[in-house]
Amino acid sequence: MEIGIDKIGFYAPHLFLDMNKLAVERNVEPAKFTIGIGQEKMAVPPITQDSVTLAANAALNILDEEDQEKIDVVLFGTETGIDHSKSGAVYVHRLLGINPNARAVEVKQACYGATAAIQMAKGHIALNPESRVLVLGSDIARYGLNTGGEATQGAGAVAMIISAEPRVMAFEGPSAYLTDDIMDFWRPVYSDKAMVDGKFSNEQYISFFSKVWEQYKKKTDLTLADFEAICFHLPYTKMGKKALRAVIDETSEAVQERLMENYQVSTQYNRNVGNIYTGSLYLSLLSLLEEKAELAEGSLVGLFSYGSGAVGEFFAGRLQPNYRKHLFTEQHQELFVSRKEISVEEYEEIFEETLPSDGRSIELDIHEDPAAICLSGIKEHSRQYINKQRDVSTWKGEESR
């Protein structure tokens, strides 16, 4: 029985900041952002979007009634959760109208969370072949204004349905993985902004990739030549290229050229969204699948997941017959086209607008947010969410005020 990705979709906020304009405002040469780290645009979340709404919006348009009934596990990978106790998966489960006879759990290990969720999903499907698992990777990357990490911020989510006999990609062979207790990137519970040792984190990312790649080769007897492409977790789009360069000399020039070319294709979506932490690897995969029209059925694609702190894993998937028919390419292209550019000043205002941390209730104006699912406020310490497509009476009530 094959197990893998049956559907995959993503969502990013409707606002974005041009990195060239941010560079000018910060007195930085624009090429440092657009070429040096490889970022063109940064998705900017309004206060009406959090990790829950991003995840729910990513899943909303890929689910049908059969999925809603057959999904019996919802796994939410995030490092920007909204509650220390209740999982984001429970909120998403309700917002999407999924079968009540389901498990709903949040998974955390920095940017590795969604990969851990996939591995858990594989075990569940192996025991329950008729089931489907909804895996979510959703985050908002915040480092602060005028900080070294500011240019690598972003926001968005990827949603995947994992099932038996998948129509997009079947996972193949064993994984190689590694854990080490290091402090390259972390976010204490008292802070809404991440802390990072950038140079050390880059070094560890490359080291982890090299180590799990060596382990993977021993487990599988595969080489770089067996892969049509390798997708990476991308905190910024140049990071994966640095890791790939560490091993690229193992293969022929023709294979090197193919892998590097496909790597560039796999970075297109990330380049225009920014870092989305747990979803970044899978946004890279989605970019490859939707932007590379000639990517052949049956191709083997490598996947490197890295979560600071740190856990790394390399695994692979094979593209299924007619996989392109089961992508949501037009929907995703429309999402990009419909986004609105904001100025640096507007971005700074949005960044500084945060939810109360003292327990106060608040109502948010969701009319300017075109997303179907929004955060409408906080009441009695509980976040209030609205699905505009379903909560008609509530939404109309909001609209009439």
UniProtKB/TrEMBL annotation:
Q: Keyword set for this entry?
A: Acyltransferase, Transferase
Q: Which InterPro entries match?
A: HMG_CoA_synt_C_dom (IPR013746), HMG_CoA_synth_N (IPR013528), HMG_CoA_synthase_prok (IPR011554), Thiolase-like (IPR016039)
Domain named Hydroxymethylglutaryl-coenzyme A synthase N-terminal is located at 2-164
Tell me which SUPFAM superfamilies the record gives.
Thiolase-like
Listed GO MF terms: hydroxymethylglutaryl-CoA synthase activity
Q: Which residues form the Hydroxymethylglutaryl-coenzyme A synthase C-terminal domain?
A: 179-246, 252-352
- NCBIfam families linked to this entry: HMG-CoA-S_prok
Q: PANTHER family, per this entry?
A: 3-HYDROXY-3-METHYLGLUTARYL COENZYME A SYNTHASE, HYDROXYMETHYLGLUTARYL-COA SYNTHASE
What family is reported? Belongs to the thiolase-like superfamily. HMG-CoA synthase family.
- The protein's name is Hydroxymethylglutaryl-CoA synthase
Organism this protein belongs to: Virgibacillus xinjiangensis
